[in-house]
Amino acid sequence: MGRKWNNIKDKKAAKDQSTSRVNAKFGREIYMAARGGEPDPEANQALKMVLERAKTYSVPKHIIDRAIDKAKGGSDETFDEMRYEGFGPSGSMVIVDALTNNVNRTVSEVRAAFGKNGGNMGVSGSVSYMFDSTAVFGIEGKSEEEVLELLMDEDVEVRDVFEEDGTVIVYAEPDAFHAVQEAFGKNGISEFQVAELTMLPQNEVSLSEDEQAQFEKMIDAIDDLEDVQQVYHNVDLG
To answer: Which InterPro entries does the record associate with it (predicted)?
Structure first.
């Protein structure tokens, strides 16, 4: 479990270093969530979850407000949610989630990012069956025992609770995201290192030094694409 958490943590740290790109991606995701329902997060659970994730990445209020206002204004801009799956060196697997207003452009760009960096795209379902959709929270300032007791007192079921490097990590079913979040909120916990839905690999693979360098180059190329929102993989980068 620990290595999976390190990959999530390292991914967040890398994104934190590219603020403008993160803000742009969250702006698009917030707009889509607000447009798909009520622009009020208390009445739109999808929007509420995106805003909680945005909070952990310190997305500025004006970015959030602008995206919601755009949705309120009835903009006719539409995006399709797309998922692409593919392979890198030595059995490494990659899932790419995108929001796009031009599917042909996006699939072409994602395929090129794979192909130019030693990977290749697979068909739908060729990779995702080896991953589990998971709600993940990272909390500082509490012990594993305190968090576990808190969740038990609130009658919230989770997959796993463990502590690593001073952070307590909670894995739960995706549909338990709000229940976990509310349980923490009732107990005065509203700040998270990470609070998001992710795809955790059932098994991780280790690459040689050269393969890892090539793999990281491929992941960076994919993640840099404007339409790409999230990239998940099964490589231990520790």
So the answer is: Integrase-like_N, TACO1_YebC-like_2nd/3rd_dom, TACO1_YebC_N, Transcrip_reg_TACO1-like, Transcrip_reg_TACO1-like_dom3, Transcrip_reg_TACO1_YeeN, YebC-like
181 found inside a domain:
yes
pTM above 0.90, yes or no: no
On whether residue 178 sits in a domain, the answer given is: yes
What residues are paired with 161 via a beta bridge?
170
Model confidence pLDDT, tens digit, residues 146-169: 999 999 999 999 999 999 888 999
Written as one string, the DSSP assignment of 153-221 is: HTT---SEEEEETTEEEEEE-GGGHHHHHHHHHHTT----SEEEEEEEESS-B---HHHHHHHHHHHHH
Query: Residue 27: inside a domain, yes or no?
Result: yes
Q: What angle do CA 95, 1, 168 make, to 5 degrees?
A: 110
Chain segment 96-106, per-residue pLDDT in tens: 999 998 999 99
Residue 167 CA to residue 63 CA, distance in Å, equals: 29
Number of domains in the chain: 3
**CA-CA distance, 203 to 238, in Å (whole number)?**
14
